[in-house]
Specification:
Layout: H1 3-6, E1 15-17, E2 20-22, H2 34-42, H3 45-50, H4 55-63, H5 65-74, E3 78-80, H6 90-96, E4 102-106, H7 109-122, E5 128-132, E6 145-151, H8 160-174, E7 175-188, H9 191-201, H10 217-224, E8 227-238, H11 245-252, E9 258-267
Bound molecules: S-adenosylmethionine (SAM).
Amino acid sequence: MNDSFVELFSKPPKEIIENDFYFDADSDGDPFDENDEYFWLNQGIFKSNWEGKRQDRDANFILCDEIADKIASDGKPFLEIACGPGMGLAPIILAKNPQIPCLATDACSRLIRTWRHYINNNLTRYNISLASFSLLDMPLKDNALDYVTGFLGIGSTRNGGSGQLQALKEVLRILKPGGVFVAVEGEFEDLTKVDEVFKLWGKPNWYRNDDSWQTLWHDKFISTGFQIESDDRHYYRKWTKDSNDFGEAASRFNNQINMKYSLYVLRKPNRI
Ligand SMILES: C[S@@+](CC[C@H](N)C(=O)[O-])C[C@H]1O[C@@H](n2cnc3c(N)ncnc32)[C@H](O)[C@@H]1O
């Protein structure tokens, strides 16, 4: 664990492995197994994600270029939340300044262990610390960081809208006043079209099970207490028949469903 992060923790980890901190948070994360691990390491998934070769990664590099320049030139340590197999926005920022201390985190301990293996073998020029903890209850002090980043990080938490709100409150808490949360999150471009597909399909719209289905990310950020500095950069992805059963139904009924991904630059107000 890099020195700049050690002092930011509010409690000791349950376990330290290869200098990374583990807080026993697997029950909140994705249940990845040994097949995923094999896939990440031996099928080149970590490598291509890090290098920005996947389609959405590529779009992210363009979307986040400007804000990554800003973080890179500031050179302050940053926290990547729910880093997943893609490492979120960390590769984009570190490509611009490999020396910045980055703390990449995820609830899933297997994912963190596997990233450590990959980093030690392939990414030694970077200063990447790792920790396994849940976004819903971060073991970090209040007002600890200048920058938090995430790609579908808040959207990945379970428990629907209330889980997302809890995670957002946590991010707000650990940011310094004036600190910035850079988030890429996605939402359906047009909810009525989603309803239409389920109607044609004859199934209840399962996305409505999420209590925040109709709440825009913009409104979730505002209701938590963030100031929105910018939210005007987007890209779109078509839901395809390979996405899931819903995507298959949408394409069968010739109904194009788009996901809209937006870059949000959010500031913690100086006084809240
Ligand atoms: C689809 S990935 C998110 C995308 C990821 N940032 C990327 O770049 O690939 C979902 C990740 O969120 C993690 N996750 C889900 N809920 C979490 C929570 N409460 N705290 C921390 N990580 C969580 C999962 O373990 C998983 O690795």
